[in-house]
Amino acid sequence: MKESATLAVAARAAALKKQGVDVVAFGTGEPDFDTPANIKAAAERALQAGQTKYVATPGTAEARAAIAAKLSRENRIACAPEDISITAGAKHAIYLVLQTMVEPGDEVVLPTPAWVSYRPLIELAGGRCIEVPGALANGFKVTPAQLAAAITPRTVAVLLNSPSNPCGMAYTPDELRALCDVVAAHPHVGVISDEIYEKLTYPEQCPGLAPWSPGSYAPLAGRVVTVNGMSKAFAMTGWRIGYVAAPGAGAFIPELIKLQAQMTNNIPAFFMPAIVEALSDRSAPEVERMRKAFAARAAIVNELLPAIPRFANVRSTGAFYAFPSVAACKGLRSPGGRAITDGQSYAEALLAEAHVAVVPGGDFGDCAADHVRITFACDEATLRKGIARIAEFTGSLR
Ligand code: PMP
Ligand code: GLU
Questions:
Q1: Complete domains list, the chain, with CATH
Q2: pTM over 0.85
Q3: What is the number of the ligand closest to the CA of 357?
Q4: Which atom of ligand 2 is nearest to the CA of 115?
Q5: What is the pLDDT of residues 131-160, one digit of tens each?
Q6: Which of 131, 172, 338, 357 could form a disulfide with 13 if both were Cys (CB 3.0 to 4.6 A apart)?
Q7: Average pLDDT, the chain
Q8: What string of H, E and C letters represents the secondary structure of the chain?
C-alpha cells in the first residue's frame, strides 16, 4: 500500500525543521488554530468526572443525538441518532464505509483531483477506483456528462468531496444537484459525500457560494452516506473525531458498526461531551472567527498566486488549498541543477533549495502529476513569506 503523500511531506518538513532549517510548511492540511476553549473544557470535565470506560461503539446517545440534530438543522438531512456512528476521524469513517459497501470488483467513481487517501482505501476494500478528471479550465469541476459516462453496472458509489481537498474549490448547490441527478438515474448507485470542509467556504471569494448536502436531496433518499468530522471546522485534528450518517439505508450503519466493534470500539468516552459542546451554539462564534481568518488567507493566495510566473491555477473558494499546475516548468532546471519533470520533482527541488514544503500532485489523481498542493493553514506573514519564496524559485528556473 502507498504511504500517505500528505503525511510524508509533513514528516519531511518536520525533520528539516528539527535540523534547524527555516522551512515554510505548506504541506499538511490542518488548521493552525488551537481547539476552542469551551470544547477542551467539556472533555476535561468529562475526564475528571470519570467518563473513562467503554461506551457504545457508535458513541453515546447524547453525542449521536447532537450529530443527528446538527445534520437535520444545518444540512437538512433528516436523521436519527441510530443512523450515525462516531469514528476515529473522518478517515476512519471513510475506511469503514468502503469496507462495508464495496465488494471485490465493484467500482467507485471518484472525481479528481481528489484527496490522497480515497484511492488506497477503495482498493483496500477490493474496489476499482474510476477516476473522472475535472479539467483545470473548468475549475477542476467534473460535468454531469463526464459523471454519466463513468457509471457502469459495477458502480456502487460516487465519492464527492466539496469543498475539495486538494482543489480548494466548492461546487455550487446547483452544480452538485446536477451531479446528484445523474446518480439518481441509476438506482444501484449511491453517493458518499465527504463534507469535512463544509464550514470552510468563502463567499467573499465567490459570491453566493453556500454548502449543500446530497443527503438532503429527496431523489437520493436512502442512498447517501454523509461523512464529516470535527478536525477542520473546530481545529481538532489531533483528537481524531469523525462521523458517518446513512439515514434510510437499511442495514448499512448496523453492518458498519459491527466492523467498528471488531476493530476499534468507541472513540475516547470523555470526547463525547466535547462533541455535544462543539456542535452547540456556544462554538459558533469561534468557528466563524477561524473561517474568516481562512477567507482572508484565501484572498491573499488568490491575489499572489496568479502573479507567479509559469503557474496556472484556479481561485481558492473553499477548504485551505490551492492546487496550481507547474506544467510550464517542465524541462527546466533549478539553480541547484535539479531537473523539473513533474510536480514531484518541482516539490523536491522547492523544498531542498527554497525550503518550502508543498505536496506533489501525483497521488491526488492521474490527471494531477504536474500539480502541487499549497496549504494555506498558517498565519498571513508565513503565507506571504512562503509564496514569495515560491515565486522567486519558480522565476529562477532556467
Ligand atoms: N477527507 C478529506 C477530504 C480530508 O482532507 C481529510 C483530512 N485528512 C479527511 C477526510 C480526514 O480527516 P480526519 O480523519 O482528520 O477527520
Ligand atoms: N487532510 C489533510 C491533508 O490532506 C491531513 C493529512 C491527511 O490525513 O491526509 O493534508
A1: 5-35+285-395 (3.90.1150.10), 51-281 (3.40.640.10)
A2: yes
A3: 2
A4: 4
A5: 999 999 999 999 999 999 999 999 999 999
A6: 357
A7: 97
A8: CCCCHHHHHHHHHHHHHHCCCCCEECCCCCCCCCCCHHHHHHHHHHHHCCCCCCCCCCCCHHHHHHHHHHHHHHHCCCCCHHHEEEECHHHHHHHHHHHHHCCCCCEEEEEECCCCCHHHHHHHCCCEEEEEECCHHHCCCCCHHHHHHHCCCCEEEEEECCCCCCCCCCCCHHHHHHHHHHHHCCCCCEEEEECCCCCCECCCCCCCCCCCCHHHCHHHCCCEEEEEECCCCCCCHHHCCEEEECCCCCCHHHHHHHHHHHHCCCCCHHHHHHHHHHCCHHHHHHHHHHHHHHHHHHHHHHHHHHHCCCCECCCCCECCEECCECHHHCCCECCCCCECCCHHHHHHHHHHHHCEECEEHHHHCHHHCCEEEEECCCCHHHHHHHHHHHHHHHHCCC
